[in-house]
Amino acid sequence: MKEEFKLQGNWKVVTFEEIADGKNGIVDGPFGSNLKTSDYINDKINGVPVLTTKNLGGDYSDDKVRFISKDKFETLKRSQVNPGDILVAKIGSIGKTGIYPKNARIAIIPANLLKFTVSKKVNFDYVFYYINSNGLQNRIKNISTATAQPAFNVTKFRKLRIPLPPLPEQLSIVSKIEELFSELDNGIAQLKTAQQQLKVYRQSLLNLLVTGKNLKTIDSVIEKLDQGWSPKCLNENSKDEKEWAVIKTSAVQHGHFIEIENKILPPDLKPRVQHELEVGDILITRAGPRVRVGVCCMIRKTRQRLINCDKVYRIKVNTKIISPEYFELILNTPYYQREIEKMKSGISDSGLNLTQVKFLKIEIPIPTLKEQQLIVSELESKLTVCDKIEETISQSLQQAEMLRQSILKKAFEGELVNYELEKIN
Question: What stretches of 116-266 show up as alpha helix (H) in DSSP?
Answer without folding.
Answer: 124-131, 134-142, 154-159, 167-207
